[in-house]
Design goal:
Number of helices: 7
Number of strands: 14
Radius of gyration: 18 Å
Structural class: alpha+beta
Helix content: 10-25%
Strand order of the largest sheet: 7-6-3-4-2-1-14-13
Order of helices and strands: EHHEEEEEEEEHEHEHHEHEE
Distance between the termini: 10 Å
Shape: globular
Largest sheet: 8 strands, mixed
Length: 304
């Protein structure tokens, strides 16, 4: 089973840059997408090939949007918003189906309509797969300075992200346990907007006070992974490597210098993580060949 997670930074832009050839060449069985950034009626025809599409676009025009592509129609779909677009290959309808959200963890309601989370039960394997786009956040008020990249906001974006992290940890625990009760492994895929360790970004010394590498964000990440709950699959396969990085700024030649961050993850329950036989990042050969500011993270799992 080949599984990919890919923040495409806008599916229409990604299509122009080569998303379809990437999808055909890599031929994954499951693909989680983040930042699809497109209303259902504007999805490029045929962009997802012969895959079944499960898409939670959210209700913020031109932002967010998460999806899962599968070989077969999922056995079940869950999303926080209560509606989801499900299409078979070749279909172009825009009707969203009801999707019972189940019990949502306290604190997630403000994020429910933003297109940040969807999970599916695969129909051909005993695995529940979730796609997540976690808020980018910002700096706490005491680290903000006038004249920075973003205007000071008193720590509002930081506080919002930290609230999401606390609530999502509870939700993640529920989803993992629900999958286990149903006899399924659980696999969280997506852009978590946190680099967990010093191995996960190039300039860790200079980023110690940057959003995405703050001590409290890294502590949160440590709290959701363990040998008995969820395992960072790429790090499990490459325990001593720096990276592999999955995001590089469009600016300043960051890609050419490989000055990047590893913020896109496969987090799997232990039995599934142990079946990973290959894991890495589809880093293009040159900046001109980039589909997105992220690269796909692809893992091959052997069947049980």
């Amino acid at each position: 089973m080949r599984v990919a997670t890919f923040n495409v930074n806008g599916i229409r832009a990604a299509q122009r840059r080569g998303f379809e050839p990437w999808l055909a060449e890599r031929d994954p069985d499951v693909v989680a997408l983040q930042e699809v950034r497109c209303s259902p009626d504007k999805l490029p025809p045929g962009v997802f090939g012969e895959y079944h599409l499960t898409y939670e676009p959210g209700h913020i025009a031109g932002r967010n949007g998460v999806a899962v592509l599968t070989r077969e129609r999922p056995a079940a779909v869950r999303t926080w918003d209560g509606e989801v677009l499900v299409r078979a290959p070749g279909e172009e309808h825009t009707h969203r189906e009801p999707s019972p959200p189940g019990t949502m963890a306290r604190g997630l309601a403000p994020f429910a309509s933003e297109g940040r989370y969807v999970e599916v039960d695969l129909s051909d394997r005993a695995v529940t797969v979730a796609s997540l786009y976690l808020p980018k956040g910002g700096l706490p008020a005491h680290l903000q300075k006038p004249g920075g990249r973003e205007a000071p906001d008193g720590g509002a974006k930081y506080e919002r992200k930290m609230g999401f992290l606390a609530s999502f940890a509870r939700q993640l625990d529920r989803s993992r346990k629900a999958a286990r009760a149903a006899g399924r492994d659980f696999l969280l895929l997506g852009d978590l907007n946190v680099a967990h360790t010093r191995q996960d970004l190039t300039n860790w010394r200079g980023s110690a006070k940057s959003e995405g590498f703050l001590p409290e964000e890294r502590e949160w990440f440590s709290s959701i992974v363990s040998p008995r709950t969820l395992i960072d699959v790429v790090r499990h396969v490459h325990p001593d490597a720096d990276g592999p990085m999955s995001w590089w700024s469009w600016m300043g030649g960051a890609f050419d210098r490989d000055t990047g961050w590893r913020i896109d993850y496969h987090l799997a329950t232990p039995a599934l993580a142990k079946r990973a036989v290959a894991a890495g990042t589809d880093r293009p050969a040159s900046a001109a060949e980039r589909v997105s500011d992220h690269a796909a993270v692809v893992v091959d799992y052997v069947d049980a």
